[in-house]
């Protein structure tokens, strides 16, 4: 029965029955006209979630890591210099990927809990008079630390330095859950995936590519075959795929977009902000501390929470799973054993989040954490009651 409980990891997220059923399709001919009629609107409608009219959406049968590889190999050459800040596990993994591809990676190390250092980016770019830095790589929402970075500030830093570097953004755990403005922020490649805000199974890397990045792909010499933009976009132009597509995920993506648009993207974002704030109220009531250093950095999709000194956070997440059948995120990298994470994105409601808060409270009480049982739940309940439109009507 435990698999009926919602998960509170920051992805993969809970899959609504509506999307599970949409993915339960029989094998079909992906070269037939009816596939073209399904696939082309998916690409077009996904642009609305990225916030673009000028970018082009491409998908690959892969996770977000495949999207990173596609971004790098389609636009850069061996030995090219890129600028990246490291402030969590996923920003580090992008650095590792670039290094393995033979790129010259200029790394700015930042404290975990901080965000993308726009001012330091500007300084580094201003010193690069020869314009050797080809791209700035940023993780929008660092899933390990629960930090959301200001991408518009990074764009301003690039522009203030009068530098031609491309801007690549990992928005795997933010897209379709928090606002993303591809055109307004001057992003050149944004990388996401099917398994988080889109509430689907893992297996589809989703990218948005600017005209500038497409122009760079014409001369890029890093090897790529499976992830070649040219092959994919040429096939997509006629509504097809250069190889066998993940048919079930494409049908799921079509339904996911319908769900997002039915709720309304602004309402989706507002719901995530409300859910996240309830979790933050609970953390404060427990007397615990978020890893994110300041409110302007707080993520609306995942909260990373320090445990008290001398306590192993992995024991907490293990106990929550073993005793109550519910999954929470473990601490990653530098936070291994020091913090746990509550994912609050995708298919979640106030009531579902309260079930997670009450469960992790029970697990903490079982392990003798210095908390008052029910305090976090009560704090979140109070916020959700006041923040619910239906409650506001009833109170009036």
Verbal overview:
The chain is of the alpha/beta class. The protein has two domains: about 1-10 and about 265-390, Aspartate Aminotransferase, domain 1, CATH 3.90.1150.10; about 15-260, Type I PLP-dependent aspartate aminotransferase-like (Major domain) (Aspartate Aminotransferase, domain 2, 3-Layer(aba) Sandwich). Helices cover about 45% and strands about 15% of the residues. It contains 14 helices and twelve strands. The strands form three sheets. The protein has a seven-stranded mixed beta sheet with strand order 1-9-8-7-4-2-3, sandwiched between helices. Helix 5 runs parallel beside helix 6 (about 150-160), helix 9 (about 245-265) crosses helix 10 and helix 11 (about 315-325) packs across helix 12 (about 350-365). The longest helix is centred in the C-terminal third of the chain and has 22 residues, at about 265-285. The radius of gyration is 21 Å and the shape is globular.
Uncertain runs are: none
The number of helical segments is 14
Tell me which CATH architecture of the largest domain applies here. Answer: 3-Layer(aba) Sandwich
CATH class of the largest domain: Alpha Beta
CATH superfamily of the largest domain: Type I PLP-dependent aspartate aminotransferase-like (Major domain)
**Main beta-sheet annotation:** 7 strands, mixed
Mean pLDDT: 95
Structural class category:
alpha/beta
